[in-house]
Amino acid sequence: xxxxxxxxxxxxxxxxxxxxxxxxxxxxxxxxxxxxxxxxxxxxxxxxxxxxxxxxxxxxxxxxxxxxxxxxxxxxxxxxxxxxxxxxxxxxxxxxxxxxxxxxxxxxxxxxxxxxxxxxxxxxxxxxxxxxxxxxxxxxxxxxxxxxxxxxxxxxxxxxxxxxxxxxxxxxxxxxxxxxxxxxxxxx
Length: 188
Hints:
The chain is an alpha/beta fold. It has eight helices and five strands; from the N terminus they run βαβαβααββαααα. It is elongated and about 70 Å long.
């Protein structure tokens, strides 16, 4: 069975072009998603994954419609491969049933890994350069006076947590860390 999947990012966009193209190419069922690709929850894609069976083909107009990122796309491709499902992308002329299609996916996978490795390398180099200049990594430490003020505001019960974090410029988590540390000091 050929199962089509379409996605657009917002309600203002139309799926018609993608649907027409998938029908032209023989899609028997088409799942239609109107949702930003950044959203990890895509209910129609989940329905597609439940419906697909070994030997089926998932067809998309473009790989960008299927994956939110290279990493996400590769994860999906791996899921489809393990389920014995072929993926066809019309725009990129990729068919994972063919050796060329599998080669292209392998190449995309290698580029993705290369990109991740470069990010890790640059991060390490940046941290080393900062340490050489006497600076450590991570966020700058908050002024202890600001933290004391935040705690006293909290203890006064005259301010909400939202007011405290806004006034003091600290995160909710940082406020609770400070309060927790004070409670530990009292119990020790």
